[in-house]
Amino acid sequence: MTQPTDIRRDGTRPLLLDLFSCAGGAAMGYARAGFTVHGCDIAHRPNYPFPYHRGDALTYLAHLITTGEIRRYAFVHASPPCQHGCALTVGTNASQGWGRSHVDLVAPTRELLEQTGLPYVIEQPNGRAEIRKDLTLCGEMFGLGVIRHRNFELGGWSARQPAHLRHRGRVRGYRHGRFYDGPYVAAYGNGGGKPSVPELQAALGIDWTDVREELTEAIPPAYSEHIGAAFLATAALGVAA
Question: Are the C-beta atoms of residues 68 and 80 closer than 8 Å to each other?
């Protein structure tokens, strides 16, 4: 693995590659933490707030490895589609195809990330794919209006697990025909008391896209800002992977 001491100390921002980037929830958090971010997604993402390559994420990563261009980067984040075995939603690596079957891209993503020699993060929701749960984050940790548990596998570095705070109540919406109120909104799907787009934006901390599909797929920027800051702090201390 590239050692964290390779992070620039001349005041420039380290470059991060954001794979399966969707509309940039993770990207914005990393930018706030101190990275310059480049994205990659197979879908057209005009709302993505940073430069991005449109194309298959794994094909693009393989190209960067083969050409040596990956050495421009200090860190890689990957959010491969989590819908393997689930026909309800479409992943961030598919521009069309609601209800189609989904392949498991976590293992090939990890294999390529290991080849880069760079520290990395793989993100997945609870119960969707087998990754090491090195870090689990929840919206309540950051005062957000969503719970949105997410697990993160940390490749080549480590971070402290924050305390998982007690949830303040229920997720607002209908359950088995009964409406429940609560301090959190359900950031997925439509109907059943689901939030409006402005409510989703406020709950997630995202204001640069108003596309519901992009919002429901997004990682809250607070999560990746926490991860990015933790990595940069580790790098500044010169802690080896």
Answer: no
Question: What is the SS3 assignment for 18?
Answer: strand
pLDDT tens over the chain, length 241 residues: 444 334 554 468 999 999 999 999 999 999 999 999 999 999 999 999 999 999 999 999 999 999 999 999 999 999 999 654 443 344 444 444 434 455 789 999 999 999 999 999 999 998 766 789 999 999 999 999 999 999 999 999 999 999 999 999 999 999 888 999 999 999 988 877 899 999 999 999 999 999 999 999 999 999 999 999 999 999 887 644 4
Query: What is the Rg, in whole angstroms, of the alpha carbon atoms belonging to the chain?
Result: 18
Return the CATH class of domain 4-157+211-236: alpha beta
Domain definitions of the chain by residue range = 4-157+211-236
Residue 10 in tokens: 């001349």
CA distance 156 to 239: 11
Residues 154 and 96: their CA atoms lie apart, in Å, by 30
Q: E strands, the chain, where?
A: 15-19, 36-41, 52-54, 75-78, 120-125, 135-137, 150-155, 173-175, 178-180
User: What span, in angstroms and rounded, lies between the C-alpha atoms of 207 and 230?
Assistant: 24
Angle between helices 57-67 and 106-116 (to 10 degrees): 20
